[in-house]
Amino acid sequence: MLRGTAQVMFLADPRAGLVFCLALCTVDWRYGAYAAAGAALGTATARLLGVGRDRVEAGLEGFNSCLVALCFAVFLDAGRPSTALLAAGGCVVVTVVTAAVVRLARAADLPSLTLPYCLVAGAVTAAAPAFRRVWPHGESPAALPRAATGPTALRPGEVWRAFFRNISQVFFLDQWHVGALVLAGVFLAGWTAGLVVCCGSAAGILTAWALGAPAERIADGTMGYNAVLVALALCGAFLAATPATLLYALLGSVTATAVAPAVAAALAPSGGHAFTWPFVLTTLGFLAAARTFPGCPGRPSAPRTARTDEFSRDRRS
Question: Is residue 49 very low, low, confident or very high in pLDDT (cuts 50, 70, 90)?
Answer without folding.
Answer: very high
